Amino acid sequence: MSNRLIPEIIRKDLEQFMTKPNPYRSLLDKWILVGHTPVEVGIEEWGRWFQDHNAERIIGSDTVGEENVSTVFLGIDHGYLTYGKDHIPVLFETMIFGGEHDQWCERWRSWDEARMGHLKTVLKLRRGTLK
After folding, report:
1. pLDDT digits over 98-116, tens only?
2. Helix extents (H) in the chain
3. Residue 43 CA to chain centroid, in angstroms?
4. Cβ proximity of 89 and 26 under 8 Å
């Protein structure tokens, strides 16, 4: 294989990667929040928003015993394995840090789902029913 063919191969791979419905394409999509509504934006606007609006990403933060429950807006679609025609981005995440459930994680498609998921997670931790 000659060196002059490598750029052509890379170009073809990049074109394929950037074309939907490649499931990993969603990892390149960037989102911000307008109120509680996710809006897709370019990478520069995304970077500025994350720099200036970090507190707005936090949906919930609670401590139950030694476990910290955090629910945030991610800004990158983590639903890449379900990517397709009717795909709804997975942009929110509840995660537990510390204690028995350290690194437990669940993801959500909307602010409202994430808020409810956060509250349910905290309640289950308090009741001792989280699996």
Report:
1. 999 999 999 999 999 999 9
2. 6-18, 43-52, 111-127
3. 15
4. yes
